[in-house]
UniProtKB/TrEMBL annotation:
One of its GO terms (biological process) is proteolysis. InterPro entries: AB_hydrolase_fold, Peptidase_S10, Ser_caboxypep_ser_AS. Residues 454-487 are annotated as: Disordered. PANTHER family: RETINOID-INDUCIBLE SERINE CARBOXYPEPTIDASE, SERINE PROTEASE FAMILY S10 SERINE CARBOXYPEPTIDASE. This is Carboxypeptidase. It comes from the Eukaryota. It comes from Triticum turgidum subsp. durum. One of its GO terms (molecular function) is serine-type carboxypeptidase activity.
Length: 487
């Protein structure tokens, strides 16, 4: 644990925070800041199954009837990775892992909700492992129950703030199923919320398509030779056959073997940035000894993502001193007050990952199609090199009530790492439009499915912050506990 792991919080913020603790008839608990700028809590989505959420109200919030201020619900991948930890403190939240302001926080353009999804991830917990979800749809049902509670808990959602579900990696499967579950509940009158759009970033919505794309892409950029490429294609074909036969657990095992094969034949190409050699790759090293996350062979690839984010920050000169596990089990846990004392936060939950073994390789393209049929805008962004389309923040700003209503085809900022190109799906595209986007990871496809030229490599982490979002409001040497408790 880092040196800020057990700070003594100021007495006044403590009393104010505790004064906001309240329980609902559904055995849920909410706490937060007295001014409502931050709220957090647990919702008991099923008996003995508790989802943790954390809401941030944007200080830049300006809402009018014609341009209502949006809310983003961030869904982390894995499966089993913590959105409250990784998504919040390492990607788009207001503070980084050193508890310093993030210049590129999405809070500049939207209110943010982070959730440790599904139950068993991060601060979320179950009182019996038999309550862990085994399918994406079970996770969607729980998350819909959470949103029904939040629709009553958060005044901004009650007032019609358009909600965008934004996901990365396996979180794309969560977003597709949750988005559809929410859309159905809204249509049935069971949920009063404005679902404005779904954004799928490097999403795992079609495992077959991604698996089949590995070898051609790596051959194209000379990370595999012809012999290795042919062998990789055969292994990918096996995965496809197993998915078609419904042998989903077997297909996941074959997929993992394919990744190991590619690693051995490509000088350990980084699955998050194929432009990097092994010697340059912060992911290639073992996890730091200070990490609080236990790893197994089944989840090693997933763990590389958060390690990559941390490595990118160090390369960019952020002088990282805290660890994510250190702050989540220390100063953050102290701030929140409602986390069970004996509960330890981890970046990735192996039990959650393993519980989804029979659903891991199941596609969610049909769910995307149904979302489109309801008129819900779906934005897909994927790939390594970026030409065009705004950052996630600008996507929110350009339409607010209609995320991704159009694609800007001029040069724009690159998306935060992992960098992706983007395209807005239309109903007429259906499966074929989505499949082409997934199979063209290095290019942006517009709604007419025309590939555009690839752009320059994206900047990563703090380098992206410094280059595109210069902000002078740095806190210097202020105490992290004061920063965390002042919000």
């Amino acid at each position: 644990m880092d040196k800020h792991g057990r700070p003594l919080l100021a007495l006044l913020p403590l009393l104010l925070c505790l004064s906001l603790l309240r329980a609902s008839p559904a055995a849920s608990v909410t706490a937060g800041n007295p001014d409502g700028t931050e709220l957090w809590g647990f919702v008991e989505v099923r008996p003995k199954a508790h989802l943790f959420w954390w809401y941030y109200k944007s200080p830049q919030r300006v809402s009018t009837p014609s341009r209502p201020w949006p809310t983003v619900l961030w869904l982390q991948g894995g499966p089993g990775a913590s959105g409250v930890g990784i998504g919040n403190f390492m990607e788009v939240g207001p503070l980084d892992v050193n508890l310093k302001p993030r210049n590129s926080t999405w809070l500049q353009k939207a209110d943010l909700i982070f959730v440790d999804n599904p139950v068993g991830v991060g601060y979320s917990y179950v009182e019996d492992d038999s309550l862990l979800v085994t399918t994406d749809w079970q996770a969607a049902t729980d998350a819909t129950t959470l949103l029904k509670a939040l629709a009553k808990e958060l005044p901004t959602l009650q007032q019609g703030s358009p909600l965008f579900l934004v996901a990365e990696s396996y979180g794309g499967k969560y977003a597709a199923t949750l988005g559809l579950s929410v859309a159905r509940a809204v249509r049935a009158g069971d949920l009063k919320i404005k679902l404005a759009g779904v954004a799928l970033g490097d999403s795992w919505v079609s495992p077959e398509d991604f698996t089949l794309a590995y070898a051609p892409l790596l051959l194209e950029v000379s990370r595999l030779d012809d012999n290795a490429g042919d062998a990789a294609k055969k292994k990918a074909a096996t995965v496809k056959e197993q998915i078609a036969a419904g042998r989903l657990a077997d297909s996941q095992g074959s997929w993992s073997e394919l990744l190991d094969f590619i690693d051995s034949k490509s000088a350990s190409v980084d699955m998050y940035n194929f432009l990097l050699d092994a010697g340059m790759d912060p992911v290639a090293a073992d996890l730091p000894a200070t990490s609080s996350t236990p790893t197994t062979s089944s989840s090693a690839q997933v763990m590389k993502y958060s390690t990559y984010l941390g490595g990118s920050q160090e390369e960019a000169g952020s002088n990282t001193t805290n660890t994510l596990g250190g702050i989540m089990n220390g100063v953050v846990k102290e701030k929140l007050k409602i986390i069970p004392k004996d509960h330890e936060w981890h970046e990735l939950s192996d039990p959650v990952y393993n519980a989804l073994v029979n659903d891991f390789m199941k596609p969610r393209i049909d769910e995307v199609d149904e979302l489109l049929s309801y008129g819900v805008d779906v934005t897909v962004y994927n790939g390594q090199l970026v030409k065009s389309l705004d950052t996630g923040c600008d996507l929110l700003d350009q339409g607010r009530g209609s995320m991704g209503a159009k694609a800007q085809m001029g040069w724009a900022e690159e998306l935060p790492e992992p960098a992706e190109a983007a395209s807005v799906l239309r109903i007429i595209q259906g499966h074929q439009g989505l499949r082409q986007i997934l199979q063209e990871p290095a290019f942006l496809l517009d709604p007419r499915r025309r590939p555009l030229r690839a752009g320059r490599p994206a900047l990563h982490g703090t380098e992206h912050d410094r280059w595109h979002n210069p902000v002078s409001s740095q806190l210097g040497e202020e105490d992290p506990e004061q920063i965390l408790s002042a919000g």
